[in-house]
Design goal:
alpha+beta; 7-stranded antiparallel beta sheet
Length: 159
């Protein structure tokens, strides 16, 4: 049986809001983050095909400290960034998203409040989005509605 410390994600095992899979516009998604996660402090980003101008923005907004989520990609070697969650950062990322394919931005995205995960999105733009229950049901529902995706409460058991 996996121990919690060995898992790459945690929210589905603690109970969370699950936003369904679907076609997500990266610009729209990024633009929704400030209003959906006003308490967020940190964005963790991992990718294998991040373009140089995107890396420059990640480096500009680098936040000191450890990379808290476990790496999601085993191969090829990915790059990981810990960035300050701020309106300025998201504005620049949204601008870049207008001219880049999603994999050129990131592969995996995590949003934290200090050391607490608020959102986990491994395989970003292609998989489920998990939101902490610290996010109210009304915020989770509104976020999913803006993205035109389904949502529900889930809690998976470790096997």
């Amino acid at each position: 049986m996996l121990q919690k410390s060995e898992m790459c994600i945690s929210l589905p095992f603690e109970g969370c809001w699950e936003i369904g899979e679907g076609d997500v516009d990266s610009v729209q998604f990024i633009d929704l983050l400030i209003e959906t996660f006003p308490e967020a402090t940190t964005v963790y980003i991992e990718g294998t095909s991040i373009e140089s101008d995107v890396k420059t923005v990640f480096e500009e907004f680098t936040q000191n400290g450890p990379y808290l989520p476990k790496n999601q990609t085993l191969w090829p070697k990915s790059e990981c960034y810990r960035c300050v969650f701020s309106k300025e950062f998201l504005k620049k990322l949204s601008y870049l998203a207008q001219n880049h394919a999603d994999p050129e931005l990131l592969d995996h995205l995590f949003i934290y409040r200090n050391e607490t995960p608020l959102m986990e999105w491994p395989d970003a733009f292609f998989s489920y989005i998990w939101l902490s229950t610290e996010i109210t049901e009304s915020r989770a529902k509104a976020f999913a509605g803006e993205l035109e995706l389904s949502w529900k409460y889930v809690k998976d058991e470790l096997t």
